[in-house]
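Lab channel / #folding
Pinned by the channel admin:
"Please post every new chain as: sequence first, then the structure tokens as a reply. Keep commentary short and put observations after the output so the thread stays searchable."

First post following the new format, from NK:
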Amino acid sequence: MKKTNDGEKYYTLQKYLKEKDYFIYGANCNAPPLRFVDSDGVYKGVVVDYMSQLALELGVEIRTEPYPWEEALEHLKNGETDFCDMFANEERAKDYVFTDPIYNLRTGLAVQADSQFTVDDINTMCIATEKGDYANYYMQKNYPDATLVYVNNVGEGMNLLSDGSVDAVVGDEPILSYYITELGETSQFRMINTALYEEPVVLAMPKGSEDLLPIINRAIQEVNRQGQLEKIQQKWFGISTPLIQAEPEKRYIRVVLIAGAILLATISFVSLNNVSLKRMVRIRTRELENSRNELQLIFDSIPEYIAILDEKQNIINANKGILQYAELDIDQCVGKPVYALFDKMQKEEIQKALHEVLKQDGRQYKFKSGKDVYEMQTHHMKIPDIGVLLTLRNITLDEVNRKQLLQSSKMLAVGQLAAGMAHQIRNPLSVIRMHTYMLRENASLDENGKRSLAYIDESAQKANGIIDNVMNFWHISGNQLEKIHLYTIFQSILQLHENALKKKKIQTEIRCHEDLYFICNPEALKHILVNLVSNAIDAMDFDGNLVLSGEKQDAEIIICCRDDGCGIPEDCRENLFNPFFTTKDPGKGTGLGLFIVYSEVEKLSGEIKVHSKVGYGTKFTICLPNRED
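Reply from TO:
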């Protein structure tokens, strides 16, 4: 079996569960005791119980749906259900993929008790068989002369056998045994001594589920290793031997002996009451087990990491989330100190966190481990043998959002300040331009004076353009899409960084057609380019080169920001867009700039790539969809 780690398992399960939160097991509705709908309307049986154990091992809910056998096969083929247990053959392999075996099953023939039929007579017999059953394939291949009568289920076939319409009924031995023994008809029917065949039963899944096979096989092996199948058999059959019926003659003798003992014994009210009491105990035990399984499923589905500790801080139970994080099984954790769950984290931080939260009930403690931020909390339980409920939550995104909100508030305040300053600066600029106009009307003004006035007008106009650019940048448009002129956006971004560019004598170049327009969120694009240009300036020394380029390629707009700065080391590139990651000196960077760039590009349904070489520079390439409408 292909081995997978818990991360691959989680990814593969999520891939198949992206449109729903559970798997569906759909199978025969009338094949007791393997699977059947009881008189109370509940779908139950050996295999139904087995699927509950498989669901616990997978950590995913498996719902059960009863169908007539042919419908169950059709639903599975169409992908409307996910699992069905069956015998595998070449014909079924065209429509399904198969797991490892889950149990073995023998198939036989039931006949009238007074008949003399044997296996050698099958080709001359009229035999009832269930529609869509593997037995049909087997009979047609090995006994082509036998007359087959197709019925909806084995019980219907037994009715035909009872009134003499057929000579025999073919079916799985547990099902035939159920109808012969549980219905009290042992004197009317018998099973032919020799089984037709004995085959392993597998779980079939629709074609296209091949990636899921290793995960299901791993869960089947674990359930079988724990001996769950034997426990289920013991519940339904009162035995713990493999799921193969005893030979018919031995079983018949045992039934006769039991019947004789019952006939010889005195049936009293007390014995009847004991039988009823045992039945009630079995029903109640099954209900309690189902309730426990449901609670465990709910416990495992909680997104927070949860562990239940005793008074000595040893682990009693843990949910799937924390087990997957620790890469451990529950059997490897129970009874061990809580620190066993956090070997991947920094030990000192965990010890400090546990020490702090265990001192006071309900106290929260935040700490950082690697690139992630966690919040730990405890609740002291007033339950015997249970000391503490420990919860651990990854709050990295919450912290990022909080810092982004704080940064946005600061930027908004700066924008409001810029708007006020723009208003105050424009007033004296208007006065200057008005007086230059008046001075030009003076006929005595010589050429030098006129040239000076032109310089004053040009400077005032330039100052006014800078104010317009700043105001356009701080204009708030939310998530609204607009038709933007990319060349103008490039110019405004470079103008905002004009002082820093001049200070380092950085040469800038815009490579973009002046008629390139496209639909985009202008504010998001400005945030992206401001962060990229700012990082590029920080990465370059004096006399560097910065190039902004844009072009249209088919259905995409390609935007590039290239510098010839120091470059990015290879070991830093994989963490480049992670929150709080920065290579700048302490106090000079928050580690959120490129994370914001990545987030904004994602919001625009785009993609960002980085190419860098240490000592030669860095190039960021952004691919955005070219929206026509």
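NK: The radius of gyration is 38 Å.
TO: also worth noting, Residues 249 and 625 are 75 Å apart (CA to CA).
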